[in-house]
Write a structure and sequence with these properties.
By secondary structure, the protein is of the alpha+beta class. Helices cover 66% and strands 14% of the residues.
């Protein structure tokens, strides 16, 4: 937009020609961080850098001892952020900002010479930070008038310009350091030698102990081999005995099996044959007994048959005897029948007596005897 100006983040916009507003007691208007409309016909706009800048100082300085030293320092500075610092810097450097490093370097060079002149070389070498702090403190009022602030000051180097003073100062320390280093080296060498000796002793002890251990081991091995050599035949004999014992057990089991086999092959048939003979004998005995009983029974049957056959003859003889006898029958036919019945009964009684006599004789002689003929 026409007339609207915006400063960079590291710039301060200076607007001159316009009357400041409010309580801003500055000869011109200062704008930072935002834009502003500027009437080009009534105001002029300038920009002042607020960025970091660097000034280098390399100044010959004479110490309290009269020794000239070349001191090199680096200063980091910038324009202050407050309105007073911006006003002071704008009034002095707005037209030529390159003057800031040169003027700052000259200010610090003056203070550096002044402060170094009040110190010894030893103090400068040992207390560089103290030198930097004293220079900063001495330069603050002047830098504030210029609107500048110092962020840091570093003493880079201090050189005696070849006089050898600093080197001479360092010689006692160098000698002491060298001596200490030599002592330390000697102690280290001694310690290393002792360590090597100790290592040699340890190695010798180890070798000796190893030799002893190997000798013991060899003796144990030899003894074990001797025992093994002795134990070999004994073990073989014992093993042979165990084999023979097992073979005896096997032979005993085989004999038992053979005995059982023989029993099965011979005893069983013999027992069977004996049983057959016993059976035949029993059968013969039973047959004989049965034959005898059958013969006896046959004899009895034959006797009975003969007796039965003889019964009519006996009855006839009885009847003949009755015919020749003088017998009178009183009750007629029934009496006659009664008589006949009595004759039959007598005939049967006679046959029974004969059978009993025959059976008695057969029991005494063991056979039925000859048949009885009528």
């Amino acid at each position: 937009m026409f007339g609207y100006r915006i400063p960079n983040p590291d710039q301060a916009m200076i607007v001159s020609g316009a009357k400041p507003r409010g309580d801003q007691a500055t000869p011109f208007r200062i704008v930072t961080g935002h834009g502003k409309f500027v009437n080009p016909f009534r105001s002029k706009v300038s920009f002042l850098s607020l960025s970091m800048q660097e000034a280098e100082v390399q100044e010959p300085c004479v110490t309290q001892q009269g020794i000239t030293l070349m001191v090199k320092a680096v200063i980091a500075f910038k324009v202050g952020d407050d309105a007073g610092s911006i006003v002071n810097a704008a009034r002095r450097f707005l037209a030529d900002e390159d003057q800031m490093p040169r003027l700052t370097g000259r200010i610090f060079a003056g203070h550096l010479r002044s402060i170094v002149g009040s110190m010894t070389v030893e103090d400068l070498i040992r207390e560089r930070q103290k030198l930097a702090e004293e220079i900063l403190d001495a330069s603050k009022p002047e830098m504030a008038k210029l609107g500048l602030v110092v962020d840091s000051l570093q003493i880079e180097s201090i050189d005696d310009q070849g006089s050898g003073y600093i080197n001479a100062l360092s010689q006692p320390h160098v000698a002491a350091v060298n001596q200490a280093a030599q002592i330390a080296q000697a102690q280290a060498d001694q310690a290393a030698a002792e360590a090597r000796q100790e290592s040699d002793r340890n190695q010798a002890d180890y070798q000796r102990q190893t030799a002893i251990a190997q000798a013991r081991y060899k003796a144990e091995v030899d003894q074990a081999q001797a025992k093994s050599a002795q134990a070999g035949p004994l073990a073989a004999a014992q093993a042979q005995q165990e084999v023979l014992a097992e073979q005896a057990k096997v032979a005993e089991r085989n004999a038992e099996l053979r005995r059982q086999q023989l029993v099965a092959e011979v005893g069983a048939p013999a027992e069977a044959e004996a049983e057959r003979i016993r059976t035949i004998a029993k059968a013969n005995a039973d047959s004989t007994s049965f034959g005898a009983e059958a013969a006896a029974a046959n004899g009895r049957i034959a006797l009975d048959q003969q007796l039965i056959a003889m019964l009519p003859q006996v009855s006839q003889n009885l009847a003949g005897g009755l015919a020749n006898a003088n017998v009178t029958i009183l009750d007629g036919a029934s009496g006659f029948n009664h008589l006949v019945a009595e004759l039959g009964a007598q005939a049967a009684a006679i046959l029974a007596a004969v059978r009993a006599a025959a059976n008695s004789g057969a029991n005494e002689t063991g056979n039925s005897g000859p048949p009885i003929e009528g």
